[in-house]
Write a structure and sequence with these properties.
The complex is a heterodimer of chains A (206) and B (248). Chain A contains 6 helices and 9 strands; from the N terminus they run βββαββαααβαβαββ. With 206 residues, chain A is of the alpha/beta class. A 6-stranded mixed sheet of chain A has the order 5-6-7-3-8-9, sandwiched between helices. A 3-stranded antiparallel sheet of chain A has the order 2-1-4, with no helix packed on it. In chain A, a hairpin with a 2-residue loop joins strand 1 and strand 2. Chain B is mostly helical and 248 residues long. The chains are: A alpha/beta (206), B mainly alpha (248).
Chain lengths: 206, 248
């Protein structure tokens, strides 16, 4: 189990979490649902170690390998799709399996033919698929997703959601996803935590 | 009309130069014809090429050290704010001290043959240093955070994230520095009266009141500086990181 215990976080004068408590079960898909700016994404930043400026404890994450799908694809523009995956995988996957693993996951997201392309030649949806391939190709225990479909049109969003659903099903790992879209939560989550802001509170769980 | 501008504008200025030179003494302003003759005389002398080569070498040595020092300390100052503050007084001193003070001090401390390269490096160093810091500060924090989450080793981050992000800033610093390096190096050659140097030839022109020679050597300096700048631009334009940046 991963647990946020008595977590307090403030941005300047504004307290966004005040002795906040939340648990995540392993091998479960948990969706954090709430309005924009309530602090959902901050939870993921804390879990991933990007944000360490808070008081309280996070238990059960230290020994876990984390993969993260951000709102933006966050690809290095001067590296090809293949090299973008290689950039994060090189130290986590033995050299002899590296290429096969990259090809396998690019195939999964149906971008095998684009492996030598640069990100600026890909559409927004394709870039996000590369980002998904990178996250799943990285050996991980916990997968964090921060509104991965934001800014995409509904058709593309449906395609990507179906892809994500399939990958999560095959992966069987702990998934924590932030969204403000109820349909995304209903489709993907085993457990949905409804949050409200200022400071962050759990409204209800389903 | 526009396509002929590159020819017409210089010709107009040569015309202005000719008119003025006809009204003042050749001692103050040699005519373009006289300067051209001096240039031709220089180009048929073997020693001219040795002199240009040696001055060029001094400029390149100065630039090389400025780039190595500017990039390394610039990255360190970007990473460690304390190091930036520590270096700041030195940078302020370098920027505000007249070049002639450096040349005279350098002549006291080191062999005169090292002074031109040293002064060229010293003048170019702040330009490259500040460009590198500026480049470091513009590295995308989202990519830094992504690298942090995936535990990408620092060495790979430096080579594949930081340096490519900073490349346009480093290139811009190097391009700006080329002209500065020529100015600093030649000034140091003049003051240190260094044998086999363009500066020494300019100095001789002054001593022997040979204004046409001073003009001719100045034209050679401008031509060399522009040639290096153009070649560097050509090399940079072929760089894959620069190419990628151009299309984003």
């Amino acid at each position: 189990m991963i647990e946020l215990r008595n977590v307090t976080k403030a941005f300047d004068e504004m307290v966004i979490m005040d002795h906040f408590h939340l648990t995540f079960n392993m091998q479960e898909v948990t969706c954090l649902l709430g309005p924009s700016g309530c602090g959902k994404s901050t939870i993921l930043k804390m879990l991933s170690g990007i944000d360490a400026d808070f008081t309280g404890e996070i238990i059960g994450i230290q020994d876990k390998r984390i993969s993260f799908v951000f709102q933006e694809s966050r690809l290095l523009p001067w590296l090809t799709v293949r090299d973008n995956l290689k950039y994060v995988l090189e130290d986590h996957v033995p050299e002899k399996y590296l290429q096969a693993r990259i090809d396998y996951f690019l195939n999964k997201v149906e971008l095998a033919e684009c492996k030598d392309e640069y990100p600026n030649t890909l559409s927004g949806g394709m870039k996000q698929r590369v980002s998904l391939a990178r996250a799943f190709a990285m050996p991980h225990d916990v997968l964090l997703l921060d509104e991965p479909f934001q800014g995409l049109d509904s058709e593309l969003k449906n395609q990507l959601m179906a892809l994500l659903e399939r990958l999560i099903e095959e992966d069987k790992k702990t998934v924590i996803m932030v969204t403000h879209d109820v349909t995304e939560a209903m489709r993907l989550a085993n457990r949905t935590v409804y949050l409200s802001g200022s400071p962050l509170q759990i409204e209800r769980e389903a | 009309m526009k396509k002929y501008e590159k020819i017409i504008i210089p010709l107009l200025w040569i015309g202005v130069w000719t008119l003025i030179s006809q009204r003042v003494s050749g001692f103050y302003l040699p005519s373009p014809y006289e300067t051209g003759n001096t240039l031709i005389a220089l180009f048929i002398t073997k020693e001219t090429y040795v002199i240009i080569g040696l001055s060029l070498l001094r400029v390149l040595i100065g630039l090389f050290f400025a780039i190595v020092l500017g990039v390394s300390t610039g990255i360190m100052a970007g990473v460690f704010n304390g190091f930036y503050r520590f270096l700041q007084p030195v940078l302020v001193a370098i920027k505000s001290t007249p070049v002639v003070s450096f040349i005279v001090l350098a002549l006291i401390y080191m062999k005169s043959s090292y002074v031109p390269s040293f002064c060229g490096a010293l003048l170019c160093y702040p330009v490259i240093y500040y460009n590198v810091i500026e480049g470091y500060r513009t590295v995308d924090t989202q990519l830094i955070n992504m690298s942090k989450v995936y535990h990408v080793p620092m060495k790979r981050q430096l080579m594949k994230l930081y340096l490519p992000s900073m490349a346009p800033y480093i290139f811009a610093g190097v391009l700006t520095s080329i002209g500065i390096a020529w100015k600093g190096t030649i000034a140091a050659e003049v003051i240190s009266v260094l044998n086999h140097s363009i500066g020494y030839e300019i100095y001789n022109g002054k001593i022997y009141l040979d204004t046409a020679a001073v003009f001719a050597w100045t034209i050679i300096i401008i031509a060399c500086s522009l040639t290096i700048e153009k070649s560097t631009k050509h090399i940079i334009a072929k760089n894959k990181y620069y190419e990628r940046f151009k299309v984003i």
